[in-house]
From TrEMBL:
Signal peptide (from-to): none
Residue span, Protein YjdM N-terminal domain: 5-33
Domain Protein YjdM C-terminal per the UniProt entry, residue ranges: 43-112
Gene3D superfamilies: 2.20.25.10, SH3 Domains
InterPro entries: YjdM (IPR004624), YjdM_C (IPR013988), YjdM_N (IPR013987)
Family classification: Belongs to the YjdM family.
NCBIfam families documented for this protein: phnA (TIGR00686)
UniProt-recorded name of the protein: Alkylphosphonate utilization protein
Length: 112
């Protein structure tokens, strides 16, 4: 794979660098999100099924939740998920009954 970054769309500078999810130009301070091809946006669950917005999934392992005494148990159903570009690999935005809104990793869920 090529690690060549695109030039700045504002000034054309070739000295761009990555800063987390953004690309930054050191010459004009322009920040932008790089274009990601549609094929790279495919999100798959723990067993390889393709996920989409609105799907229902189940949790495949116990998940400790910061600030709660109990964990999300195996088999908990999560309805109406939304796929997002979250922080730290969390790519599902959802609402878990008894816990409220949160983000999950696709590697800990299975499509129903």
């Amino acid at each position: 794979m090529s690690d060549v970054l695109p030039p700045c769309p504002a000034c054309g500078s070739e000295y761009t660098y990555e800063l987390d999810p953004l690309l930054v130009c050191p010459e004009c301070a322009h920040e932008w999100t790089p274009a990601v091809p549609e094929a790279a946006k495919v999100v798959k669950d723990a067993v390889g099924n393709r996920l989409a917005d609105g799907d229902t999934v189940t949790v495949v392992k116990d998940l400790k939740v910061k600030g709660f005494a109990t964990a999300i148990k195996v088999g908990t159903k999560v309805r109406n998920i939304r796929l997002v570009d979250g922080v730290g690999g969390h790519d599902i935005d959802c609402k878990v009954d008894g816990f409220g809104p949160m983000q999950l990793k696709s590697s800990v869920v299975k499509k129903v």
